[in-house]
Write the structure tokens for this entry.
Amino acid sequence: MKKIRIVFLCLLFIVLITGCGAKEKEQKLVCTTTEKDDGVNIEETISMTYKNDKLKHMTMEVSTTITDSSVKKAWEEFKKNMDENNKEFSKDGVSLKIKVNDQNYEYSTILDVDVENASEEALKEQGLDDLKNDTSTLKDSKEAAEKDGAVCEIK
């Protein structure tokens, strides 16, 4: 009986030291790009969560702010065009939301994708057909985004 207790305690000690199994390493990559042109400021922020270097979740927010008074005069037409091209959407792990601030002339789209649970159909409807098959690592994504002019940070 004493030997069984010792074996049990040894096994318990090993489990406590090593953990109950392999833990997934989770990291978040956040990349931001800004563009200012003719009274229009555009900021794009992409946040990608990786577990064991595989993309699991992605959120992309594109915020457009009108700063020039002559461009502000066309705000209603701008919103109409943006609304025609960006329809709110929520289906099977993929959503697209729209935020509008008329007072500050801001128009934002927020795309949120749960890559693991998103259906192929929902991804396709948002033009993300190959997202589940993407084998890019966190490092690959960071290098590609920075090459395109983004400022990236790993959190």
Observations:
- Strands lie at 26-37, 40-51, 54-66, 89-91, 94-101, 106-114, 151-154.
- The two ends are 50 Å apart (CA to CA).
